[in-house]
Amino acid sequence: MSQIRILIHSLEKEIRETCKNIENILTNWNLPKSLIFDTVLVIDEILSNILEHGKTDCNSREKIVNIEIIKLKHFLKIIVIDNCDPFQLELKDSMNISEYIKKNKTGGFGLLIINKLMDTIKLERKWDKNLLIITKKIENTEEEINKILSSKTTNAYIRDEILWVITKSGSSIELDDAIKDFEAYDRVIEKYPEKKAYAMIVDTRNMKMISQDAKNYYVSQKSYGLRAIAIIINSTFGKWMGNYFISLNKNKAKSIKLFNSEKDALFWVESKKELVSIEKLCN
Q: DSSP per residue over 249-271, as a string?
């Protein structure tokens, strides 16, 4: 479990800085970028709402806000405590942003956003303070990526910036399979850009065959920034296929090489990572 607490005395001056600090902390917790964006947006909206609408004894008292964020195994829990007067929280499951805008409503739009982005919202009144308790499910990023990438012909995952593609036993890869493979990787790097791989290891040892259309499609696609592609083979067919990709794919990656074992393929690919790191420093 990870946990942070933030005390805000001057809302007007500290909202932007507070949101930036929270964003940095959530990033250090290795949460998905989409979850970080939603959480920061919601906290910004809550603090802005307290600043604009919160009342404290005819505004004679300073508005003080405590924020507590707890990262549990499967969800994020956010508790916002303020010393303002009580207020009512009215939420409806049927709330729809598009319909809300069409009706030209202005008040409560922030609450609508919070309700849409978070999974649960609960308001309590304790110790003469308002307690807003919000939760958001943390998706298992690795499991989700594996599910997106894997198909009927391959199991695939990204680990240490390397895209692993392992063909299933007896698999026959057709054009439709090749198209779906690239569409899946597109979805992954669009949703999780930080997961973009610098290299790929393709284990073809279980594959039965691959159609000519599928081969042509694979070599015609963009490089996706891959600097090295290692192809693991164990047959004459595998060697022929690997050499075919090498001959047609010269401009798609810095290096392509055939191997007979995972160990050798991984060692070679990891040696390329050092060159990528050096290039990043130079740029």
A: -TTTSSEEEEESSHHHHHHHHHH
DSSP 80-107: EEE-SPP------TT--HHHHHHTT--T
What architecture is the 141-282 domain classified under in CATH?
2-Layer Sandwich (3.30)
Segment holding 277, helix H or strand E: helix 262-282
Contacts (Cβ under 8 Å, ≥6 apart) of 258: 230, 231, 232, 233, 239, 242, 243, 246
Which amino acid, 160? D
Q: Are 163 and 197 in contact (CB under 8 A)?
A: yes
Asked whether residue 170 carries a pLDDT value surpassing 60, the answer given is yes
Q: Are 185 and 224 in contact (CB under 8 A)?
A: yes
Q: Which residue type sits at 255?
A: S
pLDDT at 154 over 60: yes
Is domain 2-137 given the CATH code 3.20.20.140 in the classification? no
- Say what the pTM is: 0.53
Place of tokens 């991984």: 266
Domain extents for the chain? 2-137, 141-282
Tens digits of per-residue pLDDT, 189-213?
A: 888 888 888 888 999 988 888 888 9
